[in-house]
Amino acid sequence: MGTRPQMMGADGGAVLHLTIYLPTRDEMKIDLYDVSTVDEAIQELLRVHQAETRQPPLYYGHPECYELRLHDSDGIPDEDFPALDRSRKIKNFGDAGGHEYCLCERPDACPPSGDAPADVAAPAAAAKPSAAAAKAPLPNDKAFLKIFMPKSDDYTVVAIDGTTVGQDLLPTLNKKHRLQLFQELYVLKISEADRERLDLASDEIDMHTKLRPLNLHEVTLATKIFADAPQISAPAPSAVEETANVDSRSRPPPETFMFNDVTAAMFKEWHVIKKNKYGKKQQRMLGIDLNKIYNRKVGERVITSSKSTKIAERPMSGVVWVRFNQDPSEFQIYFKDSIEEIITDYTADSPYECAEIVAKLKYILSRRK
Q1: Where are the domains of the chain?
Q2: C-alpha pair distances (Å), 73 with each of 87, 94, 101, 225, 337
Q3: C-alpha radius of gyration, the chain, whole number
Q4: What is the domain class of 15-111 according to CATH?
Protein backbone atom coordinates (compact mmCIF):
# COMPACT_ATOMS: atom_id res chain seq x y z
CA MET A 1 0.00 0.00 0.00
CA GLY A 2 3.00 2.28 0.35
CA THR A 3 3.41 4.76 3.16
CA ARG A 4 0.86 4.30 5.91
CA PRO A 5 -1.61 7.23 5.92
CA GLN A 6 -0.93 9.78 8.62
CA MET A 7 -3.17 9.79 11.71
CA MET A 8 -3.89 6.07 11.42
CA GLY A 9 -3.33 3.69 14.28
CA ALA A 10 -0.61 1.07 14.00
CA ASP A 11 -3.14 -1.75 14.09
CA GLY A 12 -4.92 -0.11 11.18
CA GLY A 13 -7.94 -1.92 9.81
CA ALA A 14 -9.64 -2.23 6.44
CA VAL A 15 -8.37 0.31 3.93
CA LEU A 16 -10.72 2.58 2.01
CA HIS A 17 -9.74 3.99 -1.38
CA LEU A 18 -11.14 7.51 -1.69
CA THR A 19 -11.46 9.64 -4.79
CA ILE A 20 -11.74 13.29 -3.87
CA TYR A 21 -12.32 16.11 -6.34
CA LEU A 22 -10.55 19.36 -5.48
CA PRO A 23 -12.10 22.84 -5.85
CA THR A 24 -10.47 22.93 -9.31
CA ARG A 25 -12.36 19.70 -10.20
CA ASP A 26 -9.04 17.84 -10.41
CA GLU A 27 -9.18 14.29 -9.11
CA MET A 28 -7.04 13.10 -6.19
CA LYS A 29 -6.88 9.64 -4.62
CA ILE A 30 -5.98 8.85 -1.01
CA ASP A 31 -6.09 5.73 1.16
CA LEU A 32 -7.50 5.73 4.69
CA TYR A 33 -8.39 3.14 7.26
CA ASP A 34 -12.11 2.62 7.74
CA VAL A 35 -11.97 4.00 11.29
CA SER A 36 -11.11 7.47 9.94
CA THR A 37 -13.53 10.35 10.37
CA VAL A 38 -14.50 12.90 7.74
CA ASP A 39 -12.32 15.49 9.49
CA GLU A 40 -9.34 13.12 9.39
CA ALA A 41 -9.95 12.53 5.69
CA ILE A 42 -9.71 16.27 5.05
CA GLN A 43 -6.50 16.48 7.08
CA GLU A 44 -4.95 13.56 5.20
CA LEU A 45 -5.86 15.04 1.84
CA LEU A 46 -4.24 18.36 2.76
CA ARG A 47 -1.12 16.54 3.93
CA VAL A 48 -0.77 14.50 0.74
CA HIS A 49 -1.56 17.49 -1.46
CA GLN A 50 1.24 19.49 0.18
CA ALA A 51 3.68 16.57 0.11
CA GLU A 52 3.11 16.14 -3.62
CA THR A 53 3.52 19.93 -4.14
CA ARG A 54 0.34 20.09 -6.17
CA GLN A 55 -0.82 23.37 -7.66
CA PRO A 56 -2.61 25.53 -6.87
CA PRO A 57 -1.87 25.15 -3.15
CA LEU A 58 -4.60 24.71 -0.57
CA TYR A 59 -4.94 26.13 2.94
CA TYR A 60 -2.52 23.65 4.49
CA GLY A 61 -2.93 23.13 8.22
CA HIS A 62 -6.47 24.53 8.12
CA PRO A 63 -8.95 21.67 7.66
CA GLU A 64 -11.62 23.96 9.16
CA CYS A 65 -11.58 25.85 5.84
CA TYR A 66 -13.03 22.85 4.02
CA GLU A 67 -15.92 20.41 4.01
CA LEU A 68 -16.57 17.19 2.13
CA ARG A 69 -19.68 16.69 0.03
CA LEU A 70 -20.91 13.75 -2.00
CA HIS A 71 -19.77 13.78 -5.61
CA ASP A 72 -22.46 14.33 -8.23
CA SER A 73 -20.68 14.22 -11.61
CA ASP A 74 -17.74 15.76 -13.45
CA GLY A 75 -16.09 16.86 -10.20
CA ILE A 76 -19.15 18.84 -9.11
CA PRO A 77 -20.55 18.36 -5.57
CA ASP A 78 -24.08 17.11 -5.01
CA GLU A 79 -25.82 20.17 -3.56
CA ASP A 80 -28.98 18.18 -2.81
CA PHE A 81 -27.25 16.73 0.25
CA PRO A 82 -25.63 18.62 3.14
CA ALA A 83 -21.90 18.54 3.85
CA LEU A 84 -20.74 15.34 5.56
CA ASP A 85 -20.69 15.34 9.36
CA ARG A 86 -17.03 15.84 10.27
CA SER A 87 -17.22 13.64 13.36
CA ARG A 88 -18.63 10.57 11.62
CA LYS A 89 -16.58 7.80 10.05
CA ILE A 90 -16.00 8.29 6.35
CA LYS A 91 -16.99 4.67 5.63
CA ASN A 92 -20.61 5.54 6.50
CA PHE A 93 -21.00 7.71 3.41
CA GLY A 94 -19.90 5.33 0.66
CA ASP A 95 -22.38 4.89 -2.17
CA ALA A 96 -22.74 1.26 -3.31
CA GLY A 97 -19.22 0.53 -2.10
CA GLY A 98 -17.64 3.53 -3.84
CA HIS A 99 -16.16 6.55 -2.13
CA GLU A 100 -16.23 9.70 -4.26
CA TYR A 101 -16.37 13.12 -2.62
CA CYS A 102 -15.74 16.78 -3.36
CA LEU A 103 -13.54 19.04 -1.24
CA CYS A 104 -15.35 22.37 -0.96
CA GLU A 105 -14.27 25.62 0.61
CA ARG A 106 -16.43 26.93 3.44
CA PRO A 107 -17.10 30.61 2.64
CA ASP A 108 -17.48 31.45 6.34
CA ALA A 109 -14.04 29.98 7.16
CA CYS A 110 -11.90 30.86 4.12
CA PRO A 111 -9.37 32.28 4.01
CA PRO A 112 -8.14 31.36 7.52
CA SER A 113 -7.50 34.07 10.09
CA GLY A 114 -4.14 35.84 10.06
CA ASP A 115 -2.80 34.00 13.12
CA ALA A 116 -1.73 30.98 11.05
CA PRO A 117 1.80 29.64 11.60
CA ALA A 118 4.41 31.25 9.38
CA ASP A 119 5.37 27.94 7.72
CA VAL A 120 1.84 27.13 6.62
CA ALA A 121 1.44 27.52 2.88
CA ALA A 122 -1.74 29.12 1.54
CA PRO A 123 -3.15 29.87 -1.87
CA ALA A 124 -2.27 33.15 -3.47
CA ALA A 125 -5.91 34.06 -3.11
CA ALA A 126 -5.49 34.09 0.66
CA ALA A 127 -3.36 37.20 0.41
CA LYS A 128 -5.34 40.41 0.44
CA PRO A 129 -4.13 42.53 -2.47
CA SER A 130 -4.95 46.18 -2.70
CA ALA A 131 -7.72 47.23 -5.04
CA ALA A 132 -5.14 48.46 -7.53
CA ALA A 133 -3.33 45.12 -7.50
CA ALA A 134 -6.50 43.06 -7.90
CA LYS A 135 -6.79 41.46 -11.31
CA ALA A 136 -9.43 39.72 -13.33
CA PRO A 137 -9.43 35.90 -13.38
CA LEU A 138 -7.31 34.25 -16.02
CA PRO A 139 -9.32 33.07 -19.04
CA ASN A 140 -8.71 29.39 -18.32
CA ASP A 141 -9.33 29.58 -14.56
CA LYS A 142 -12.06 27.24 -13.35
CA ALA A 143 -14.75 28.36 -10.92
CA PHE A 144 -18.12 27.29 -9.59
CA LEU A 145 -21.30 29.15 -10.50
CA LYS A 146 -24.58 28.87 -8.59
CA ILE A 147 -27.61 28.93 -10.92
CA PHE A 148 -31.05 29.64 -9.47
CA MET A 149 -33.99 28.24 -11.41
CA PRO A 150 -36.81 30.53 -12.64
CA LYS A 151 -38.96 31.88 -9.80
CA SER A 152 -37.59 29.28 -7.42
CA ASP A 153 -35.20 28.87 -4.50
CA ASP A 154 -33.80 25.71 -6.10
CA TYR A 155 -30.31 26.05 -7.49
CA THR A 156 -27.57 24.00 -9.12
CA VAL A 157 -23.82 24.49 -8.81
CA VAL A 158 -21.84 24.00 -12.02
CA ALA A 159 -18.17 24.34 -12.89
CA ILE A 160 -17.23 26.88 -15.57
CA ASP A 161 -14.01 27.81 -17.34
CA GLY A 162 -12.88 30.52 -19.72
CA THR A 163 -14.89 29.14 -22.64
CA THR A 164 -18.21 28.50 -20.87
CA VAL A 165 -21.22 30.45 -22.15
CA GLY A 166 -24.81 30.42 -20.94
CA GLN A 167 -26.04 27.80 -23.39
CA ASP A 168 -23.40 25.38 -22.09
CA LEU A 169 -25.21 25.31 -18.73
CA LEU A 170 -28.49 23.93 -20.08
CA PRO A 171 -27.41 20.27 -20.57
CA THR A 172 -26.34 20.15 -16.91
CA LEU A 173 -29.60 21.75 -15.75
CA ASN A 174 -31.63 19.42 -17.95
CA LYS A 175 -29.86 16.39 -16.51
CA LYS A 176 -29.92 17.57 -12.91
CA HIS A 177 -33.60 18.53 -12.84
CA ARG A 178 -34.83 16.20 -15.60
CA LEU A 179 -35.99 19.08 -17.77
CA GLN A 180 -36.04 20.07 -21.43
CA LEU A 181 -34.82 23.68 -21.52
CA PHE A 182 -34.19 25.36 -24.85
CA GLN A 183 -31.67 28.18 -25.06
CA GLU A 184 -33.80 30.46 -27.23
CA LEU A 185 -36.38 30.73 -24.43
CA TYR A 186 -34.03 31.81 -21.60
CA VAL A 187 -31.57 34.46 -20.49
CA LEU A 188 -29.33 34.73 -17.44
CA LYS A 189 -29.95 37.47 -14.91
CA ILE A 190 -27.35 38.88 -12.54
CA SER A 191 -27.69 40.78 -9.29
CA GLU A 192 -27.89 44.57 -9.17
CA ALA A 193 -24.51 44.66 -7.45
CA ASP A 194 -22.92 42.66 -10.28
CA ARG A 195 -24.64 44.84 -12.88
CA GLU A 196 -23.16 47.98 -11.31
CA ARG A 197 -19.73 46.37 -10.92
CA LEU A 198 -19.68 45.39 -14.60
CA ASP A 199 -21.22 48.72 -15.64
CA LEU A 200 -23.93 47.05 -17.71
CA ALA A 201 -27.13 48.73 -18.86
CA SER A 202 -29.24 45.65 -18.13
CA ASP A 203 -29.22 42.81 -15.62
CA GLU A 204 -29.69 40.30 -18.46
CA ILE A 205 -26.91 38.29 -20.09
CA ASP A 206 -27.61 36.43 -23.32
CA MET A 207 -26.78 32.75 -23.61
CA HIS A 208 -23.70 33.33 -25.79
CA THR A 209 -21.74 35.51 -23.34
CA LYS A 210 -18.59 34.03 -21.80
CA LEU A 211 -19.21 33.81 -18.05
CA ARG A 212 -15.82 33.29 -16.42
CA PRO A 213 -14.39 36.74 -17.33
CA LEU A 214 -17.39 38.35 -15.57
CA ASN A 215 -16.29 36.82 -12.24
CA LEU A 216 -19.86 35.95 -11.23
CA HIS A 217 -20.73 33.73 -8.26
CA GLU A 218 -24.43 33.28 -8.95
CA VAL A 219 -26.97 33.92 -11.70
CA THR A 220 -30.67 33.29 -12.21
CA LEU A 221 -32.10 31.48 -15.19
CA ALA A 222 -35.03 33.59 -16.38
CA THR A 223 -37.64 33.18 -19.09
CA LYS A 224 -36.96 35.50 -22.00
CA ILE A 225 -39.71 38.09 -22.44
CA PHE A 226 -40.44 38.80 -26.09
CA ALA A 227 -41.66 42.19 -27.31
CA ASP A 228 -44.96 40.79 -28.58
CA ALA A 229 -45.68 38.78 -25.43
CA PRO A 230 -49.01 39.59 -23.73
CA GLN A 231 -48.83 41.42 -20.41
CA ILE A 232 -49.85 39.21 -17.50
CA SER A 233 -50.89 40.85 -14.28
CA ALA A 234 -49.28 39.60 -11.09
CA PRO A 235 -51.44 37.22 -9.02
CA ALA A 236 -52.99 38.41 -5.81
CA PRO A 237 -50.57 37.68 -2.96
CA SER A 238 -53.24 36.96 -0.40
CA ALA A 239 -53.12 33.17 -0.69
CA VAL A 240 -49.37 33.07 -0.10
CA GLU A 241 -49.42 35.63 2.68
CA GLU A 242 -52.21 33.84 4.53
CA THR A 243 -50.13 30.66 4.80
CA ALA A 244 -47.81 32.40 7.26
CA ASN A 245 -50.57 32.18 9.85
CA VAL A 246 -51.89 28.74 8.93
CA ASP A 247 -52.00 26.24 11.78
CA SER A 248 -49.51 23.39 11.41
CA ARG A 249 -52.40 20.92 11.10
CA SER A 250 -54.20 22.95 8.43
CA ARG A 251 -53.62 22.24 4.77
CA PRO A 252 -52.73 25.38 2.81
CA PRO A 253 -54.73 26.14 -0.35
CA PRO A 254 -53.30 24.96 -3.69
CA GLU A 255 -52.77 28.61 -4.73
CA THR A 256 -49.94 28.74 -2.21
CA PHE A 257 -47.72 26.98 -4.73
CA MET A 258 -47.12 29.19 -7.76
CA PHE A 259 -45.80 26.63 -10.24
CA ASN A 260 -44.68 27.41 -13.76
CA ASP A 261 -43.68 25.04 -16.57
CA VAL A 262 -40.08 24.88 -15.34
CA THR A 263 -40.59 24.57 -11.58
CA ALA A 264 -43.38 22.03 -12.02
CA ALA A 265 -41.18 19.89 -14.29
CA MET A 266 -38.15 19.99 -11.96
CA PHE A 267 -37.55 16.76 -10.10
CA LYS A 268 -38.35 16.88 -6.38
CA GLU A 269 -39.06 14.20 -3.82
CA TRP A 270 -40.67 13.93 -0.40
CA HIS A 271 -40.70 11.40 2.41
CA VAL A 272 -44.12 9.73 2.59
CA ILE A 273 -45.88 6.74 4.12
CA LYS A 274 -47.32 4.67 1.28
CA LYS A 275 -50.07 2.11 1.80
CA ASN A 276 -49.72 -0.73 -0.72
CA LYS A 277 -52.62 -2.65 -2.19
CA TYR A 278 -52.45 -5.14 0.67
CA GLY A 279 -52.86 -2.38 3.26
CA LYS A 280 -49.24 -2.53 4.43
CA LYS A 281 -47.67 0.84 5.26
CA GLN A 282 -44.21 1.47 3.83
CA GLN A 283 -41.79 4.38 4.19
CA ARG A 284 -40.92 5.68 0.76
CA MET A 285 -39.39 8.64 -1.06
CA LEU A 286 -41.94 9.89 -3.58
CA GLY A 287 -40.28 11.70 -6.50
CA ILE A 288 -42.01 13.70 -9.23
CA ASP A 289 -40.81 15.25 -12.48
CA LEU A 290 -42.54 16.11 -15.75
CA ASN A 291 -42.61 12.56 -17.09
CA LYS A 292 -42.58 10.16 -14.16
CA ILE A 293 -43.46 9.42 -10.54
CA TYR A 294 -40.66 7.65 -8.65
CA ASN A 295 -40.95 5.30 -5.71
CA ARG A 296 -37.77 4.39 -3.83
CA LYS A 297 -36.88 3.09 -0.41
CA VAL A 298 -35.64 5.57 2.18
CA GLY A 299 -31.84 5.70 2.18
CA GLU A 300 -31.28 4.81 -1.48
CA ARG A 301 -29.62 7.71 -3.31
CA VAL A 302 -30.43 6.82 -6.90
CA ILE A 303 -33.05 4.69 -8.59
CA THR A 304 -31.07 2.39 -10.87
CA SER A 305 -33.41 -0.56 -11.29
CA SER A 306 -36.51 -2.22 -9.91
CA LYS A 307 -34.54 -4.57 -7.64
CA SER A 308 -35.26 -2.68 -4.44
CA THR A 309 -38.91 -1.76 -4.94
CA LYS A 310 -41.51 -3.65 -6.92
CA ILE A 311 -42.36 -0.61 -9.05
CA ALA A 312 -39.52 1.92 -9.00
CA GLU A 313 -41.25 4.40 -11.31
CA ARG A 314 -44.47 5.00 -13.21
CA PRO A 315 -45.00 7.17 -16.28
CA MET A 316 -46.97 10.37 -15.70
CA SER A 317 -49.28 9.24 -18.51
CA GLY A 318 -50.52 6.53 -16.14
CA VAL A 319 -51.77 9.05 -13.56
CA VAL A 320 -55.52 9.59 -13.95
CA TRP A 321 -56.07 11.90 -11.00
CA VAL A 322 -54.77 13.01 -7.60
CA ARG A 323 -56.91 14.21 -4.70
CA PHE A 324 -56.82 15.07 -1.02
CA ASN A 325 -58.14 12.79 1.70
CA GLN A 326 -59.96 14.06 4.77
CA ASP A 327 -56.81 14.03 6.93
CA PRO A 328 -54.81 17.18 6.03
CA SER A 329 -51.62 15.15 5.44
CA GLU A 330 -53.15 12.40 3.31
CA PHE A 331 -53.76 12.17 -0.43
CA GLN A 332 -54.50 9.56 -3.12
CA ILE A 333 -53.17 8.93 -6.61
CA TYR A 334 -55.13 6.90 -9.17
CA PHE A 335 -52.80 4.95 -11.50
CA LYS A 336 -54.04 3.17 -14.62
CA ASP A 337 -52.16 1.31 -17.34
CA SER A 338 -52.60 -1.74 -19.56
CA ILE A 339 -51.77 -4.08 -16.68
CA GLU A 340 -53.63 -2.69 -13.67
CA GLU A 341 -55.46 0.23 -12.19
CA ILE A 342 -55.01 1.08 -8.55
CA ILE A 343 -55.70 3.89 -6.10
CA THR A 344 -52.75 4.35 -3.74
CA ASP A 345 -52.94 6.16 -0.40
CA TYR A 346 -50.07 8.35 0.82
CA THR A 347 -49.37 10.27 4.01
CA ALA A 348 -46.96 13.20 3.76
CA ASP A 349 -44.82 14.45 6.65
CA SER A 350 -46.98 17.58 6.98
CA PRO A 351 -50.13 19.15 5.54
CA TYR A 352 -47.91 21.67 3.76
CA GLU A 353 -45.96 18.96 1.94
CA CYS A 354 -49.19 17.15 1.15
CA ALA A 355 -50.57 20.30 -0.50
CA GLU A 356 -47.31 20.86 -2.39
CA ILE A 357 -47.28 17.33 -3.82
CA VAL A 358 -50.90 17.52 -4.94
CA ALA A 359 -50.47 21.02 -6.40
CA LYS A 360 -47.39 19.93 -8.39
CA LEU A 361 -49.13 16.86 -9.78
CA LYS A 362 -52.29 18.78 -10.66
CA TYR A 363 -50.27 21.41 -12.51
CA ILE A 364 -48.44 18.74 -14.54
CA LEU A 365 -51.70 16.92 -15.31
CA SER A 366 -53.36 20.19 -16.37
CA ARG A 367 -50.57 20.86 -18.91
CA ARG A 368 -51.13 17.42 -20.40
CA LYS A 369 -54.61 18.27 -21.62
Answers
A1: 15-111, 143-223, 267-368
A2: 25, 15, 10, 32, 34
A3: 24
A4: alpha beta
Domains 15-111 and 143-223 belong to one CATH topology:
yes
Query: What separation, in Å, do the N-terminal and C-terminal C-alpha atoms of the chain show?
Result: 62
Neighbours of 82 (CB within 10 A): 10
Q: Which of 195-204, 254-263, 334-343 has the lowest mean pLDDT?
A: 254-263
* Cα 246–chain centre separation: 29
**DSSP single-letter state for residue 18:** E
Position 29: which residue type? K
pTM > 0.85: yes or no? no
Buried b (16+ CB within 10 A) or exposed e, 98-120: ebbbbbbbeeeebbbeeebeeee
| 63-91 residue pLDDT tens | 999 999 988 877 888 776 778 889 988 88
* CATH code given to domain 267-368: 2.30.29.30
Is the CATH number of domain 143-223 3.10.20.90? yes
